[in-house]
Amino acid sequence: MWAIRKQQRELVLAGGIYMAGFAATANILIPTGTIMAERLAYLPSAGFCLLVALSWTWLRDWAPPGFRLNKGWQRTFAFAVLAALVGALAVRTVVRNQDWINNLALYSAGVRAAPGSAKMHANLGSQYMDYGQVGLARAEFQAALRIYPDYPDALASYGLLESWMGNNEAAGRMMESALNMSRRDNPNYDFMIVNMAALLIQTGKMDGALELLNREIAESPKYARAWSNRAVIRYKRGETASAAADVDVALRLDPSNTQAQNLVRLLGASAPSATPR
Prior knowledge:
Blueprint: H1 2-5, H2 9-23, H3 42-61, H4 71-97, H5 103-113, H6 118-130, H7 134-147, H8 152-164, H9 168-181, H10 189-202, H11 206-219, H12 224-236, H13 240-253, H14 258-266
């Protein structure tokens, strides 16, 4: 407001870019579902950088009323401040880059920076799952659910972890709750519903699994895991032609689908595993 009253057009421009940029990513005008992320500050940072440049120009040229300063000394001082600022930011960049070595380091840093974020804890738990650190993964999912008990993605991942550990009853409750909380617009919905179907296959509930997979294929026909899991059911029932057809679709959609690849080798031999993948 001061800049507008004083008709400081450069400051108005810098502040306008900064405020407008954050208005678009601050869940005020448009909900983004993310409360904090460096990428959300990319556009606002243009306004901030302009403000820093204006401040540095002011420092280089400013003189108190009634004083005559040595311009050479003043320029040297301004450039020294600029060099110190650039050096400090360079060091901070090097330190921050260590957090981007891999996803485990990134989400660990995220939890340290935002310990109250259920999303960060859930993401870190998923990384611990990938590394086979079951106890640490379970602790992170529990932390996420203490913060946000109705977080379907955390529940679904926790359920998957419990299914890996053979705790099928607990896994089923969590996965079912996660599905009931979710809608088709959840990016992880396909993953959740196929994991639920795979758990039902593991526990011998083929009809329930087939019903879920038929619905999933009808609603999301390009999700390869749904086809490969349905192929497992058909293979176990001795419907080899139908199983082969589902495997063919799964591999066309995703040639790296290991479940479908195993079925190709096992078709006509022993029944494959339906472990969620």
